Amino acid sequence: MATDCFALLGQERRPWLEADALKAAYLTRGAEAHPDRAHGRSAVDKEAANARYAELNTAYNCLREPKERLAHLLELETGRKPENAQPSPGAAEFFFTMAPVLQGADQFLKQRAQAMSPLAKAQLYAEGLAWADKLMALQEQIQLRRDFFEAELRAMDATWAAAPALERAAQLCGEFSFVKRWSDQIQERLARLASE
Length: 196
Known about the structure:
The chain has 196 residues and is mainly alpha-helical. It has helices spanning 5-8, 19-33, 43-64, 66-78, 89-114, 118-123, 125-159, 166-194.
């Protein structure tokens, strides 16, 4: 069984956690367990302090991201990690909207990488800005999806203690996984567009 990240940070096992409260708990416990507090102690005590601090960092990183938090919650509740979710119809539809933009940005980046002269690169500048705008528009749509799913998590949280919706939590875990993956793909292309 996995370490209970909720218990490490003094949080209830719930699908929604307030970011500020979670951060405050992490900072408080992190300050208490910081390896610098073990200065002057034995090597064993220093190693234990480092391990405890690393464990708190891992727990915080797990609980602050909805996908990771839901996967961890489901593992604690069911005794097993959630299976890879299949995309919902809305996710599949969004992917088909997003794919041509990503492919077009990739083709542009390849074309720009092949441009050798400063003049050729300058001529591609405006097109690069247009691709960045398209990618940022997609990123905004992804953020709207994330906001929608976070609102559902908040609503789910209100009834979690009485009736945990494990199946829907697993589906939302999958939705957050797609949202994160897509957002990362777009961010990577935006970084490449800005790099030259």
